[in-house]
Amino acid sequence: MISFKNVYKRYPDGFEALKNVAFTIDAGELVYLTGHSGAGKSTLLKLIAAIERPTSGHITVSEQNVNALKKSTIPFLRRSLGIIFQDQKILYDRSVFANVMLPLQIRGFEKKISAARVRAALDKVGLLAKETANPITLSGGEKQRLCIARAVVHRPSILIADEPTANLDVDYAQSIMEVFRSFQQVGVTVLIATHDVTLLNDTRYRTLTLNQGKLIS
Ligand code: ADP
Ligand code: ADP
């Protein structure tokens, strides 16, 4: 589902954030990506979403050759992706429901279908009871659930998340992981960047480890 071959990423300032990275993630797998701060985790996720482009090497995501993607075809790649990044802003001038509706509105979905999908997404993350609430009233864990609902509302086949349990205490972190597992169980491929050791101690899942831009395990 996701494959990297000999991938290098050098930023314009010359810093080499990824060096000769190679791995494969199969459809339906849940994989953790770990490593020290600055190891290159976010860079790797950004390459998957074509937010950053590789300097050299080959990246395949959902059978699409990400290297060869023209700018105009990036939206097609993003259609198969659900992205949960920390800099994604929640809009506080509208309800939880309207926040999750937004990605579908942008994509031009019909209102009736959208509403059903939004409720399905909110239900999956356990936030349906809060659909009319303003997101300002949500707890940290609930806000993270909102971000997950927004990322899955268009039913992506791949979910990538950057430190989704940062700033959450252990119980909340575990329940957020339950949400990711529930998506994996219905066939979604999930890649989670984290240095949360309580998650990494869960030996059911494979862990990719980056060290100074190199994949060491
Ligand atoms: P992590 O997510 O593991 O903390 P990042 O992928 O964010 O690591 O960063 C890896 C390295 O690349 C860091 O040293 C960071 O400073 C550098 N880096 C990230 N983005 C840029 C950028 N846009 N320009 C230059 N250097 C960057
Ligand atoms: P489409 O063009 O198919 O509508 P989008 O551009 O909306 O796809 O991207 C899909 C997902 O990726 C959305 O959840 C969006 O928030 C997220 N996304 C897009 N660009 C970025 C970015 N630069 N940083 C973080 N997330 C992004």
UniProtKB/TrEMBL annotation:
Database matches in PANTHER family: CELL DIVISION ATP-BINDING PROTEIN FTSE, IMPORT ATP-BINDING PROTEIN
InterPro entries to which the protein is assigned, alphabetical: AAA+_ATPase, ABC_transporter-like_ATP-bd, ABC_transporter-like_CS, ABC_transpr_LolD-like, Cell_div_FtsE, P-loop_NTPase
Self-association and partners: Homodimer. Forms a membrane-associated complex with FtsX.
Domain annotation ABC transporter: ranges: 2-216
One GO cellular component term noted in the UniProt record for this chain: plasma membrane
Pfam families: ABC_tran
Full protein name: Cell division ATP-binding protein FtsE
Biological function: Part of the ABC transporter FtsEX involved in cellular division. Important for assembly or stability of the septal ring.
Lineage: Bacteria, Pseudomonadati, Pseudomonadota, Betaproteobacteria, Nitrosomonadales
